[in-house]
Amino acid sequence: MAGPRDGAGTAEGSIRLRRAEAADLDFVVATERMAHNDLRISQWPRERHEACLADADYAYWLALDDRGTPLGYAILRGLTDRHGNIALQRISVATPGQGTGRAFLVALADWAFAETACHRFWFDVFTDNAVARALYRAVGFVEEGVQRESIVRADGRRASLALMSTLRPEWLALRAAAAAN
């Protein structure tokens, strides 16, 4: 299933969304364990991914290039949240710095607001990840606050998380303005 941002542009060409399936978990787990993710995202055992993939509250997505090759994956949760809050649990691309992550995030938010009753699309990001925070602000997400030293990283150090979100009216206005330009 492609999302509304099918063909979203990146430095490498275009991406399209496809819902991930059990057969895609090898890619998900391998990408999650890449060195650039060591201190950025949690490392889940395959069994947890299998359980979440089967849970209606979660949606696993792949970003694909124009040949159908996976470039990254994302996990959304909260699809059954009665308040309309969908969280980006995780997003990771196999090769950072190519524009794929930006296009992927925009496509995911577009999908959430177009295909669900989502009112608030949110996530947290490590406060020391300045590049990601700048990217998220650049595409329209707002920092709501900081959870101080709320996570223990794989290396044992405590880290703080910035909460970021966009609301349906904000996102739709941004996308309408972008389409008009």
CATH-defined superfamily: Gcn5-related N-acetyltransferase (GNAT)
- Care to count the β-strands? 8
Instruction: Give the strand line-up of the largest sheet.
Output: 1-2-3-4-5-6-8-7
- Please give the count of helices: 5
CATH topology label: Aminopeptidase
Highest-level CATH class:
Alpha Beta
Secondary structure: helix percent: 25-40%
Could you spell the SSE succession in H and E letters?
A: EEHHEEEHEHEEH
Which architecture per CATH?
Answer: 3-Layer(aba) Sandwich
Mean pLDDT: 87
Tell me the β content: 25-35%
Q: What shape does the CA trace take?
A: globular
Descriptive report:
With 181 residues, the chain is of the alpha+beta class. It has one domain (8-180): 3-Layer(aba) Sandwich (Aminopeptidase). The protein is built from five helices and eight strands, in the order ββααβββαβαββα.
SSE arrangement:
Blueprint: E1 8-10, E2 13-19, H1 25-32, H2 46-53, E3 58-64, E4 70-77, E5 85-93, H3 100-115, E6 120-126, H4 130-138, E7 142-152, E8 158-167, H5 168-180
Parallel strand pairs: 5-6
Antiparallel strand pairs: 1-2, 2-3, 3-4, 4-5, 6-8, 7-8
Features:
single chain; 181 residues; alpha+beta; Aminopeptidase; eight-stranded mixed sheet; 5 helices; 8 strands
What is this entry, summarized?
The chain is an alpha+beta fold and about 180 residues long. About 30% of the residues lie in helices and about 35% in strands.
